[in-house]
Amino acid sequence: MLISVIGCGYLGAVHATCLAHLGHTVVGIDSDRELAARLDAGRPSFYEPGLESLLTETLATGRLRFTGDPAAVAGSSVHFLCVGTPQLPDRPGADLSALDAAVGALLPYLRDGDLVVGKSTVPVGTAERLADRFAAAGSGAAVAWNPEFLREGHAVADTLRPDRLVYGSGTGDERAVAILNEVYAPVIAAGTPVISADLATAELVKVAANSFLATKISFINAMAEMCEAAGADVTVLADAIGRDVRIGRQFLNAGVGFGGGCLPKDIRAFGARAAELGVDRVAGLLDQVDRINLGRRDRIVDLTAEVCAGDLVGARIAVLGASFKPDSDDVRDSPALAVALDLQRRGAHVRVTDPQAADNARKRSADLTVVDSVTEAADGADAVLLLTEWREYRELRPADLAGLVRHRRIVDGRNVLDPGRWRASGWSYRAPGRL
Ligand SMILES: NC(=O)C1=CN([C@@H]2O[C@H](COP(=O)(O)OP(=O)(O)OC[C@H]3O[C@@H](n4cnc5c(N)ncnc54)[C@H](O)[C@@H]3O)[C@@H](O)[C@H]2O)C=CC1
Ligand SMILES: O=C(O)[C@H]1O[C@H](OP(=O)(O)OP(=O)(O)OC[C@H]2O[C@@H](n3ccc(=O)[nH]c3=O)[C@H](O)[C@@H]2O)[C@H](O)[C@@H](O)[C@@H]1O
């Protein structure tokens, strides 16, 4: 099939590459011409394990190309919308301006029978609005919604072997379902279940899934607060409740909380849409989830002050981790950077390091000192903070840092180190949710 993918960031670059890998002829279009040119040369503009090799391999087949030219959609019959839907600058809610611009640029090239498939995460009702827009413009193209559930750091595998495919389509639009089945034929043949729904349900599935994940993390972080108050250990609690298959152990890691380009903005946009529709309970629930989450960043700052005997002014703090999660260079709404900036505002001298996200951290905040190694970050430090659980940080031993730091103090913001081991080596060890 001839397919266009519009918007080639974290989602679109992976989606375009994987569809071409599956055998389709794909053009990826991005309004950022430099980004498109880099992808076309086999160089993704972000770090995602496995993407660069798959991209190089797939470009070589001649079935995949990237361009900044919106006219390149002409000739494709299926158009995936993968542009960003960030938070509005001044309030909770999704900024749909990129989506509307992308649709505006696509409209003149649409032919009757084309299928426009939304993958971006949007407020419920957006697909219907776009369908009305196509109809008003006299276009014979149909709209479907096919939300994406990939995780950064696992994006290629999640795209080729997703837990499920969800299709939303207009009433009685069996053709859209048939086209999507053809697009994903090899994925479906490998056993992926397909759930077909109306447009609104498909849109809601996506934000409900992210809201559930966010709620699960905030639940365990609320339990971490309880554990601290009661002198209990949240990591043991999570292991024990997670053994119940109805609960499950995943997404029960307490710590500095969730960040990234999706969970935070998605729960806020969903809350705002719920409030618009008068569903205040959903808005209220998600507001609490957000508040609990943001409170975790403050808790890490408090723990840092505690290990530094209350005095952050002039303290030298090493922050290990800048990305919002390991195996990604994405620093959007990164809890690690939020904590680093807050400590700096309180007078600490902070040095941040990260195996992949150092450049993005520097771009994000010119005020931060970002260094290239743990050694540089920890040199002379009064406290070390582990805030993104990259494997190399999880595997750190007390002896790796002991000769570098000024004081043996560590805050394990992700609950991934063995407290006994660090304490036995003379370190003050603190972590959220355990004494
Ligand atoms: N990043 C992720 O892991 C996932 C993201 N999503 C959703 O996918 C959407 C995209 O997210 P990301 O890829 O992370 O964002 P991103 O910001 O990395 O990429 C968006 C891309 O769209 C391009 N763009 C903006 N306006 C355009 C236009 N008019 N025409 C062509 N290109 C345009 C931008 O230049 C940028 O490269 C969002 O709605 C997000 O919530 C969904 C699942 C996973
Ligand atoms: O809509 C999206 O963009 C994506 O958002 C999340 O994926 P992602 O943001 O890549 O990362 P996650 O693995 O979900 O982690 C999100 C945040 O939660 C934090 N987290 C995760 C798990 C946990 O137990 N505790 C915890 O604090 C992570 O450190 C990270 O900051 C969802 O997991 C994807 O299914 C979804 O497609």
Description:
There is one protein chain. This protein has 435 residues and is of the alpha/beta class. 44% of the residues lie in helices and 14% in strands. The protein has an eight-stranded mixed beta sheet, sandwiched between helices. The protein has a six-stranded parallel beta sheet with strand order 11-10-9-12-13-14. The chain starts with a strand and ends in a 5-residue tail after the last strand. The model has no long low-confidence stretch (mean pLDDT 97). Bound molecules: 1,4-dihydronicotinamide adenine dinucleotide and uridine-5'-diphosphate-glucuronic acid. Uridine-5'-diphosphate-glucuronic acid (UGA) binds next to helix 9.
Low-confidence stretches are none
Overall geometric form: globular
CATH architecture name of the largest domain: 3-Layer(aba) Sandwich
Structural class: alpha/beta
Major β-sheet strand ordering? 3-2-1-4-5-6-7-8
Strand content: 5-15%
Helix content: 40-55%
What Rg do the Cα atoms give? 23 Å
The CATH C-level class name of the largest domain: Alpha Beta
